[in-house]
Write a structure and sequence with these properties.
This is Fungal-type protein kinase domain-containing protein. It holds the Pfam family Pkinase_fungal. It comes from Lentinus tigrinus ALCF2SS1-6. The chain is an all-alpha fold. The protein has one domain. The chain has ten helices and no strands.
Length: about 190
Amino acid sequence: MVSPPGEEERGPEMTGTAVFMASARLQAQKDNKTITHTWEHDIESLAYVLLYSIYKHAMENEAMNKEFLDEFGTFFAPATVRGILDNRSSIFRVSADRSIPLLLAYAQNDKDLFEIIVMTFRFLNKLQSQLKVDNFEVEVADFFVPPDNSTIDFEQEFSHWRGGLRYVEYRAFGGQDSPTTWWKANNIG
């Protein structure tokens, strides 16, 4: 198949929308290397899609100022792979309250949405190897961080993120257990 003028054919290693791709896949693309597409890459992409959806929901339901649109653009508007990677490096170098303050402000009156944002930010943050965890004081998100702040493997990190999202869903439908009680009862982490 011949690509349209100005567009290169993409091999199986580069499918999907770049701003949602796992950082490892983008780095491989930038370095012109081959990388095997894994389920871990898909989960990281899902986390970016979740944040994107929350931003878009906010923009559709409330009049957002230029600063909010700029914050959104930092995550989702770079036109190049290098731009996406550079922006992610900047975003995850600092805490969520400094990287995405306007999205957090939008969600401040919705505890569940706020915690979903914080947990998703932390999940993505943990996937960026050189980065620190922020210090939010919210019930589920604080429980989500391993007690010793140690580095954990992807499957364990994913289990914590998924478990946190499931707990927020449980609580949204009237569940009353504390995160610790619920976590133990559901064998999370």
